[in-house]
Amino acid sequence: CILMIGANGQIGSELAAALRLKFGNENVITSDIREPQAIASGEIFETLNVLDKEAIKALIVKYKPTQIYLLAAMLSATGEKYPQKAWDLNMNGLLNVLDLAVEFGIKKIFWPSSIAVFGPHSPKVDTPQYCVMDPNSIYGISKLAGERLCEYYHEKFGLDIRSVRYPGIISWRTEPGGGTTDYAVHIFFEAIRQGKYTSFLSEGTELPMLYMDDAVRGTIELMDADPSKLSIRSSYNLAGISFTPKEIAEEIKKILPNFEISYSDNDPRQSIADSWPKSINDEQARSDWGWKPTFDLTAMTKDMLDNLKIKLQ
Ligand code: VAH
After folding, report:
1. Taking CA 177 as the corner, what is the angle to CA 271 and CA 235, rounded to the nearest 5 degrees?
2. Is 139 a catalytic residue?
3. Ligand 1 binding pocket, CB closer than 6 Å
4. Considering only CA atoms, which residue is closest to atom 4 of ligand 1?
5. What is the 3-state secondary structure (H, E, C) of the chain?
6. Which stretches of the chain score pLDDT less than 70?
7. CA–CA gap between residue 70 and residue 146 (Å, rounded)
8. How many alpha carbons lie under 13 Å from residue 18 in its C-beta half-sphere?
């Protein structure tokens, strides 16, 4: 079975749903620091603090998982408010899972990295798999260190750990919390709720993004891939669609002509966004395991608004 740690978050909640569909409810044990609003019948949930190594061990002994997905982390914007807590959660949470995976011979591990591992001196356009990486957010620093640990545990202990550098993820089922790319989710919610949105990132701030459906499918494809094909054991670049707040607002106006966007300035998240790439080269993932995104800006915008019209009515 699969043990998922951090299953209530933006990615965890949708990855859990996809894994339940693929493997059955009884084979997906979800966990997070607190109970979710609702647990559907047949779903298995355990409260778990990823910093409590004994508690993780107890769940491994109880359920004997063959795979662990570690999605618990503090994202970039919240991390800048509580850097020590972000480092502790992101690093010691990962180390607990890595050590227990070696101790119990867990077959496969998934751990998400982020385009936040790139920094001011990384190439901004078509950012390659390998390049200068000088992240200056505690979140990015913890993800870069995490990538080094993943590769080390693979080389030294033979751990089959797999990872992708997610761009900003766009989804409608669960609102994200504490990220810099969250504007690109909130804009859709506000477009339906208010017909207008004030962006905390400037109109020309281009960032790499990926629609949740593509992110979930790509993650499962990576986990299903033949390990001999995987040349990267730090974390794979993944690319979807790069756009600016201005461009996404224009796309929304094609469906909601009265939508209005405005911009606030000197938001602390602007400097985080400015340190990140504008677009990502994901050639290695495409050639190693056949990665390919399917949603473009138009398709993503339509899917988001169609679903939010129902969800928010
Ligand atoms: C964040 N959504 O904004 C996350 C992600 C690339 C962005 O890491 O912190």
Report:
1. 70
2. yes
3. 75-76, 114-116, 139, 167-168, 179-181
4. 179
5. CEEEECCCCHHHHHHHHHHHHHHCHHHEEEEECCCCCCCCCCCEEEECCCCCHHHHHHHHHHHCCCEEEECCCCCHHHHHHCHHHHHHHHHHHHHHHHHHHHHHCCCEEECCEEHHHCCCCCCCCCECCCCCCCCCCHHHHHHHHHHHHHHHHHHHHCCCEECEEECEEECCCCCCCCCCCCHHHHHHHHHHHCCEEEECCCCCCCEEEEEHHHHHHHHHHHHHCCHHHCCCCCCEECCCEEECHHHHHHHHHCCCCCCEEEECCCCCHHHHHHCCCCCECCHHHHHHHCCCCCCCHHHHHHHHHHHHHHHCC
6. none
7. 12
8. 18
Please give the distance, rounded to the nearest whole angstrom, from the Cα atom of residue 207 to the centre of ligand 1: 10
Whether 209 and 240 have beta carbons less than 8 Å apart is answered as yes
Residues 109-152 have pLDDT tens digits of 999 999 999 999 999 999 999 999 999 999 999 999 999 999 99
Are residues 98 and 202 in contact, defined by beta-carbon separation less than 8 angstroms? no
Which atom, in ligand 1's list, is nearest to the CA of 139?
9
Active-site pick, 69, 82, 130, 139: 139
Dist CA 51 CA 96 (whole Å): 7
CA distances (Å), 58 to each of 104, 161, 190, in order?
12, 21, 42
Q: Would residue 24 be called left, alpha or beta, if left means φ above 0 and alpha means ψ between -120 and 50 degrees?
A: left
Q: What is the predicted ipTM?
A: 0.96
* Residue 179 alpha carbon, nearest atom of ligand 1: 3
